[in-house]
Design brief:
This protein is about 20% helix and about 30% strand. By secondary structure, it is α+β, with helices and mostly antiparallel strands. It folds into 2 domains: about 40 residues; about 230 residues, q2cbj1_9rhob like domain (Jelly Rolls, Sandwich), CATH 2.60.120. The strands form 3 sheets. Strands 1, 2, 3, 4, 8, 9, 10, 12, 15 and 17 form a 10-stranded antiparallel beta sheet that branches. The longest helix has 24 residues. The termini are far apart. The chain binds 2-oxoglutaric acid (AKG) and fe (ii) ion. The site of fe (ii) ion has 3 residues, from loops.
């Protein structure tokens, strides 16, 4: 009698346990999210991190590139901000505009890891360009100016087109970063600047005192805070996003100012440090 009852109790406990396991395996319907341990933030970000690694490129080793003369104007050293006049030749700038022609798509931003369109933050179109020799020579130039930093790659290049009222609100380029993986630097290159407005503004960087900068930054009456670099065809603003200890520079917060007439076309060149990565 007693052994029979003991057997029944064990069965009830076993059935209960098995049901609980099945309930958890099917996602615990009815329980508020977050009660059961879900994937960690690292696990959730894993696909995005993988997609980023797959977007990294490196110019071919035996590529023969034309010499290009450009003028380097160092604006500040911490963060390092440099205006590079003539970074691209007119032909290169024109070529990038031509190969973007059939590829324009609405620009997106990331909101808590989710890619969305939001014209109040970023109103423009972007194009992922093919890596022909001209493009690879630009990748090569961008790495060579930085001294070929170790384990540092180029993110696939995108061009960006702003029509009237197009803009990109204040943001950092270094939002997601870790010790082993981060966007170390930015080149904002101007491919076509037949427009009013459309400079690149850094509200936390002081305007220069020296009038010689007026060729490259807005010096007239303006309500912009900080410094606004002028969009000039072929020129680039280059800056580093992190200090020597790997902290993101708060001063690099920047915006693409609204275009008030005409069209501006830009090119983003981002260099990405990925420890231990090799591009085949
Ligand atoms: O167009 C600009 O001047 C800035 C663009 C920018 O900051 C970006 O695309 O991340
Ligand atoms: Fe940016």
């Amino acid at each position: 009698m007693s052994s029979g009852q003991g057997f029944r109790w064990r069965t009830v406990v076993e059935v209960g346990l098995i049901s609980a396991v099945i309930y958890i395996l099917i996602g615990a319907p009815g329980l508020p999210a977050g009660i059961l341990p879900g994937p960690s933030a690292k696990e959730k970000d894993a696909p995005a991190a993988q997609a980023k690694i797959e977007s990294l490129v490196y110019p071919e080793k035996d590529l023969r590139c034309p010499e290009n003369e450009y003028d380097i104007h160092v604006f500040s050293t911490a963060p390092l901000i440099v205006y590079i006049d003539g970074f691209l030749s007119d032909n290169e700038a024109g070529h990038l505009v031509d190969i973007s022609d059939d590829k324009w798509q609405v620009s997106t931003v990331f909101n808590e890891g989710v890619e969305v369109t939001d014209a109040s933050v970023r109103k423009s179109e972007k194009a992922l360009i093919e890596r022909d020799d001209v493009v690879q020579c630009i990748e090569q130039r961008a790495l060579s100016i930085q001294g070929w930093p170790k384990e540092t790659f180029i993110e696939r290049l995108w061009t960006q087109r702003y029509n009237v009222s197009g803009h990109y609100a204040l943001h950092y380029d270094w939002a997601t970063s870790s010790k082993s993986s981060r966007r170390v630097s930015t080149f904002m290159v101007y491919l076509s600047a037949d427009c009013e407005g459309g400079g690149t503004n850094f509200p936390k960087i002081q305007k220069p005192d020296d009038a010689k900068w007026c060729e490259y930054v807005e010096c007239g009456e303006t309500r912009d805070e900080g410094v606004t670099f002028k969009s000039r065809k072929g020129a680039a603003v280059f800056w580093t996003n992190f200090d020597a200890d790997g902290r993101g520079y708060k001063e690099t917060i920047h915006a693409g100012m609204p275009v008030t007439s005409g069209t501006k076309i830009g090119l983003n060149i981002w260099s990405w440090y990925q420890a231990g990565h090799r591009v085949g």
